[in-house]
Design a protein that fits this description.
Number of strands of chain A: 0
Largest sheet of chain B: 6 strands, mixed
Structural class of chain A: mainly alpha
Order of helices and strands of chain B: EEEHEEEEHHHEHEHEEHHEEEEEEEEHEE
Distance between the termini of chain B: 40 Å
Number of domains of chain B: 2
Number of strands of chain B: 21
Radius of gyration of chain B: 25 Å
Helix content of chain B: 10-25%
Order of helices and strands of chain A: HHHHHHHHHHH
CATH architecture of chain A: Orthogonal Bundle
CATH topology of chain A: MetI-like fold
Oligomer: heterodimer
CATH class of chain A: Mainly Alpha
Structural class of chain B: alpha+beta
Number of helices of chain B: 9
Largest sheet of chain A: none
Largest interface: A-B, 17 and 25 residues
Strand content of chain B: 35-45%
Distance between the termini of chain A: 45 Å
Number of helices of chain A: 11
Strand content of chain A: under 5%
Helix content of chain A: over 70%
Chain lengths: 231, 360
């Protein structure tokens, strides 16, 4: 039961936090190699991939959501493969939401990662190589430790961006309590139902929560002042 | 096992700049010098493998690069120590972490033993746990040397490693490097602009200009008889003149050349015939200064002129004298006093033929 009696819907908060944690973890794992490749590859068509990664910045979330719905449906090989594996479609599931949010927040992780990799002095990478280190060892012993501020920024931004997501969730998640009903959807629903007290309380909690999380991140990471990753 | 470094490569970096060098360097310190833009760092980058030459061969014992045989050993497998001009110490690692960085394949006992030995050899044991930003410039230099040498490289490349340090620190680091080199005979290529380092460390000198080797040999050979303008400037030839050959005296082994509008100098016979444009280099300390016209000297050049200015520099007086061309002459403060030198005074400059060096 959804309570519209002016109390905060903590279930939506728990779901949102779980989604954002999952998404930032996935983005850390796939964002590191992607950012490494974007920074150090000499492939001539590299700019195409850079443009692709940045697409979610300019596309309305509904466009991304629409294509994901098509992808998840049984019109595509991927959609049919997933259905044959699990018996249901990815649309309107938590997993589907994770995939959509990862794509939607991708530039918010990859761009700060890539920017901090590119800021590492190339002489340090050369020094590492002359001391016999492989590319793998150089990455973990030199590039990553010197990019920690950028990595924290990227993870924090993708977490925050996922918390604040609305359009993609609405398109591919729908409104299933405990599965896809995130805080932003919850507030929208409360307003639609003219329950302004609930909307006000939830919105206030989200505002305070987001501010506290970002303040903590930036307090721990003072060298990075830019919230906006494209300085 | 000691091996000789053999380099014969060509690399075009810009339409106007090609590095085209061929030399070998045995164990010991070989100084590499030349003006900035001569290609010194490019040469080091090619040897270590950070840049690929267009063609040629680099070998030290085994072949590291051979364009003909398509051999190009990756940087990490060349075993060449490289101390960058910027040092490139890892800022997030302690001195110990930096020095031990290249030893990850050793057992932890062996690694600890090697680190302690090299920290001792370079007198930085007490800095073991400090970060590079918490130690002095000279100490950072020692850490960079230790980090490169602890891996037992088969060749060491040093890119102006001591240029930013004061003389005392420089000397003590040079002593440590020389001591290390006495017990580890590997070729060391040392890029420098400093004469002091050249004479203190160099067993051999290679002069580089516009991507080419223009002189090589032992330091005194190269510097006392410079045939290149680069070498001349480097070796402290304060006077370098454009001149035109006006007469060649084959039997006396000299030539006469005209400097400025009307000043004639007798110089040693070199390649050149009447009318050729040449350059002549003379050390300011090789010129005698007289206040009356000297007679009965063996020196062939005796030029009348006037003192333009006198300036005290440490224990030296730098006199500028106009003899048709402007000469720099170094005298002692005592000589300045007893000759009562002043700006405007009439003087004669006495220059031996063999103090005039023909440079290209």
């Amino acid at each position: 039961m959804i309570l519209y009696d002016g109390r905060v819907n903590w279930q939506a908060f728990a779901l949102t936090a779980r989604l954002a944690l999952f998404v930032s973890a996935v983005l850390l794992v796939i964002g590191l190699p992607l950012a490494y490749w974007i920074t150090f590859s000499r492939w001539r068509w590299k700019f195409l991939l850079e443009a692709l990664v940045s697409l979610p910045l300019v596309l309305p979330p509904t466009v991304l959501g629409y294509y994901l719905l098509v992808l998840f449906g049984n019109q595509t090989a991927f959609g049919r493969w997933y259905q044959s594996l699990t018996g249901h479609t990815l649309a309107f599931t938590f997993q589907g939401l994770v995939i959509g949010s990862v794509l939607y927040s991708l530039p918010f992780a990859v761009q700060p990662f890539a920017a901090s990799f590119a800021a590492v002095d190339v002489k340090l990478l050369a020094a590492s190589a002359t001391l016999g280190a492989s590319g793998w060892r150089t990455f973990w012993r030199v590039i990553v430790p010197l990019s920690v501020p950028g990595l924290i920024t990227g993870v924090a931004l993708s977490f925050a961006h996922t918390v604040g997501e609305f359009g993609v969730v609405l398109m591919i998640g729908g409104n299933i309590p405990g599965v896809t009903r995130t805080v932003s959807i919850d507030i929208y629903d409360a307003v639609q139902a003219a329950d302004f007290t609930a909307a006000a309380h939830t919105a206030l909690v989200l505002l305070v929560f987001s501010f506290v999380v970002l303040s903590l991140v930036y307090a721990l990471n003072r060298r990075v002042w830019a919230v906006w990753p494209f300085k | 096992m000691t091996s000789v470094l053999q380099v014969s490569i060509r690399k075009t970096l810009a339409p106007a700049f090609t590095l085209d060098v061929s030399f070998s360097a045995p164990a010991g310190i070989t100084m590499l010098f030349g003006p900035s833009g001569a290609g010194k760092t490019t040469l080091l980058d090619c040897i270590v493998g950070l840049l690929d030459p267009d063609r040629g061969r680099i070998a030290i014992g085994e072949t590291l690069f051979d364009s003909g045989k398509r051999i190009n050993t990756p940087v990490a497998q060349r075993h060449i120590g490289y101390v960058f001009q910027s040092l490139a110490l890892f800022p997030h690692l302690s001195v110990e972490g930096n020095v031990g960085y290249g030893l990850d394949r050793l057992s932890s006992d062996e690694r600890a033993r090697r680190i302690s030995a090299i920290l001792d050899a370079f007198h930085i044991e007490q800095l073991r746990h400090r970060r590079p930003d918490a130690i002095s410039g000279g100490e950072r230099q020692r850490v960079a040397l230790a980090r490169a040498l602890v891996t037992d490289p088969c060749l060491l490349l040093l890119d102006e490693p001591l240029s930013a340090l004061d003389a005392a620190v420089k000397k003590s680091i040079m002593d440590d490097l020389r001591a290390w080199n006495d017990s580890h005979r590997i070729p060391i290529l040392y890029v420098t602009h400093s004469r002091e380092e050249l004479f203190a460390l160099g067993e051999r000198v290679i002069a580089l200009e516009q991507g080419r080797v223009v002189a090589q040999g032992d330091p005194h050979q190269v510097l006392s008889a410079p045939r290149q303008e680069t070498v001349a400037q480097f070796a402290g030839f304060e006077n370098i003149f454009d001149a035109t050959v006006t007469a060649v005296h084959e039997q006396s082994g000299t030539m006469t050349c005209r400097v400025g509008a009307s000043t004639d100098l007798e110089i040693p016979l070199g390649h050149g015939s009447v009318g050729d444009k040449i350059r002549v280099a003379i050390r300011a300390g090789d010129i005698l200064l007289a206040i009356s016209e000297p007679h009965g000297l063996s020196a062939r050049n005796c030029l009348p002129g006037r003192v333009i200015s006198l300036a005290r520099r440490d224990y030296l007086v730098v006199a500028r004298v106009d003899c048709g061309a402007e000469f720099e002459v170094h005298v002692t403060p005592g000589a300045e006093q007893s000759l009562k030198l002043k700006a405007g005074a009439k003087v004669w400059l006495v220059i031996k033929t063999h103090s005039c060096h023909l440079v290209r």
